[in-house]
Amino acid sequence: MLPMRQRIASSAVCTARSCVTRSPLKIAPTLTTSRTLHIPGLTKLDKTVPQDGIVDVQVYRWSGKEGEKPYTQNYKVDVTECSPMVLDALLKIKNEQDPTLSSCREGICGSCSMNIDGQTTLACTKPIKESITNGKIKIYPLPHMEVIRDLVTDLTHFFEQHREIRPYLMKNDDAALKQSKVEQHQSREDRRRLDGLYECILCACCSTSCPSYWWEGAQDDKFLGPAALLNAHRWISDTRDDFQADRLRQLAEADLKVYGCHQIMNCAV
């Protein structure tokens, strides 16, 4: 029996073979390589914008009400009349065609993460021209997450896992740290060690791209997933923190918290 919040599971965009990769199997012939790639029986896909500018945007819809089934709804959008990102197309639909469509619109916070043309990415940074296949753009919620409504997914568990890694500076004398008005300095070299770690905006694209997270982390804490582990690494690497050893022990408490990773590498593409 399905829970009240409908789950996106195995579907055309949610299989381990074709979902959430930057180069899904179904668009392999369009990749830029040093040699031409030919797959017998596979039709070459058209990734260009139609001449008239009209794109068929197919959006996953679900009201969030128990007993109602999800469906995809098609919208005709003239992409020459809106800004270049997929989020702009969604806002054009909401403003001009269907005000009931639910998604994020901030364009900076990381909450517009969704599955676009088989890739889990941010709608505010994904260009429309890179999302079109045969004149269509297919948009679904984040894979293997509970859907609240339409493209909005429930990230409660994801953020609970983030809190579990204690994403803040910890000192041996926390009371003194809180009372102190002195900044906790570090050298420029130590600061550079955090490059590539602190920039995470918790959009959940990497974790929801990971089959290991689907199997062992999306509904429990067996595997923390790429996002939580990246942030754990960020605080373990911070020279101002006094609890590196304790943080490592916490991660090693359960076999799968870290070692649930099978180096599938969907999170890194």
Automatic annotation (TrEMBL):
Pathway: Carbohydrate metabolism; tricarboxylic acid cycle; fumarate from succinate (eukaryal route): step 1/1
Origin: domain of life: Eukaryota
Annotated InterPro entries: 2Fe-2S_ferredoxin-like_sf, 2Fe-2S_ferredoxin-type, 2Fe2S_fd_BS, 4Fe4S_Fe-S-bd, 4Fe4S_Fe_S_CS, Beta-grasp_dom_sf, Helical_ferredxn, SDH/FRD_Iron-Sulfur
Keywords: 2Fe-2S, 3Fe-4S, 4Fe-4S, Electron transport, Iron, Iron-sulfur, Membrane, Metal-binding, Mitochondrion, Mitochondrion inner membrane, Oxidoreductase, Transport, Tricarboxylic acid cycle
An annotated GO cellular component: mitochondrial inner membrane
Cofactor note: Binds 1 [2Fe-2S] cluster.
Keyword Electron transport attributed: yes
Pfam families: Fer2_3 (PF13085), Fer4_17 (PF13534)
Ranges where the 4Fe-4S ferredoxin-type domain occurs: 190-220
Mode of membrane association: Peripheral membrane protein
Cell compartments where the protein resides: Mitochondrion inner membrane
Domain 2Fe-2S ferredoxin-type: 55-143
GO terms (BP aspect): respiratory electron transport chain; tricarboxylic acid cycle
Catalysed conversion reaction: a quinone + succinate = fumarate + a quinol
EC number: 1.3.5.1
Cofactor entry: [2Fe-2S] cluster; [4Fe-4S] cluster; [3Fe-4S] cluster
Molecular function GO terms recorded: 2 iron, 2 sulfur cluster binding; 3 iron, 4 sulfur cluster binding; 4 iron, 4 sulfur cluster binding; electron transfer activity; metal ion binding; succinate dehydrogenase (quinone) activity
NCBIfam families tied to this protein: dhsB, PRK05950.1
Functional note: Iron-sulfur protein (IP) subunit of succinate dehydrogenase (SDH) that is involved in complex II of the mitochondrial electron transport chain and is responsible for transferring electrons from succinate to ubiquinone (coenzyme Q).
Family assignment from sequence similarity: Belongs to the succinate dehydrogenase/fumarate reductase iron-sulfur protein family.
Name of the protein: Succinate dehydrogenase [ubiquinone] iron-sulfur subunit, mitochondrial
